[in-house]
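Issue 218. Parser rejects a valid record. Input:
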Amino acid sequence: MSVNKIHYSRKAFILVAFVLAKFLLQYLLNNPYYDLQRDEYLYLDQANHPAWGYLSVPPVTSWISAIIQFLGNSVFWIRFFPALFGALTIVVVWKAIEELKGNLYALILGSVCVLFSVLLRLNFLFQPNALDVLSWATFYFVVITSIHPPTYPWFFIGAVVFGIGFLNPYNVVFLIMGFLPAILLTEHRNIFIKKKFYYSLLIAFLLILPNLIWQYQNNFPVYFHLKELAARQLIHVNRLGFLKEQLYYFIGALPVIVASFCALLFYKPFKKYRLFFWSIVFTLIVFVYFKAKGYYAIGLYPIYISFGAAFLGNILKEGKRKYWQPVFLVIPVLFYVLLFNIVYSVQNPDYIIRHENTYKRLGLLRWEDGKDHLLPQDFADMLGWKELAEKVDTALNRLPNKERTLILCDNYGEAGAINYYSKDKKIKAVSFNADYINWFNLDSPIYNLIRVKDFTGSEDEFKKTSPYFDTAYIAGAITDSLAREFGTTIFVFSKPKIDVIRRLKQEIEKNKKYESN
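Output the parser choked on:
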């Protein structure tokens, strides 16, 4: 076997080892104490309602949900796909370093920095974020590859990557908003006079067109979703806080990322990639201007780890500088070990409460409402769901004509959790919230109504709804005081005195009009 083949085999073995380590670490984070997270139930339920768009997210997540459902809908497969996207992000960073002529040390350094980073938390939940980061990294890799050598097929591959990224959470639009002015500032502006650039735009447009048509047919719900997001959540975002958060996500890789900026500005072999320096500047400005959440920008950094690792690999390969190589490798691992119990792992609530001050100092107890709570929001969003589904099942099984029952919830988390955990798969919970407002089945008469109400809205439910039914009672409530859904109450109403379907249609129309205002 030739020396080159041995070297290639060794590199391939190391890359596979990092991929396997990524999967292992992700599954080690799975704490059976917790249920799935609120958003995951909605995304999993989208597999039952195929469409080119949803009120909450574009369609790619639903396609992955359909695959998970085909494979059995188990927690193993739900955790598998975000872990897979995280592993592929490592592969993309590895290939980018190779494209930048990085040596074996650079490849290992880049992989270590990505492995021991915030992606361990991000790649834990089944949400669009994991694929979003992969999309950003892959798009940037395609740009690197198209610069040197300038092979034309990469433009079309870039168009496909953008299309998939757009059909994931739309976040990739921020990438383009930061990248275009960066191109205009550099010699790469000549791309705008090349036919292949416009052919690529056409490919990207055709890929996203079905979703744009869906948005048009549904009065562009993405606009109203962003409007609501800005009013309810982004209003609590502090611009300075956004910038501070950027330091935490890849804190162990911070020296490598800083090295990438130096390399892009002053390292002669990277002169042709200088647009990447301007790209991150403009992209961060766009994020800050729109008061984006901190994690929206996570996809920016993996490719800059590639630049920094390739640069450090080249300048630390000879003489006394070589002694610095272990330092850059140890820093990400050290931060991972120090922060594992607090930042990266999914600890039981009693541990979090005992270390409340540490969590609070790191801002981990602050929710979207801008207030501190006992648990991080994601953790509180993973409690109480099984309890809710079990109590709804118990109430359902006691009802006459249970197949004529409507389960109406206050929010998508409640509806999705009931549909996921319930043993009766024929009766689906719905809500006027999020995508569930389009998933009502009103083709059959309704004799029973199980109303799941948030604690803050449950005080008057019995008094308001019971006059329309002959039978009314409370069947239970979520009792886990640490759950975000604590106090959510299950009301049961039977033998309606009114036309329930007519009343529901009126409520659906009213809620749709409210969403569009």
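Fixed in the parser; the record now loads. The radius of gyration is 25 Å.
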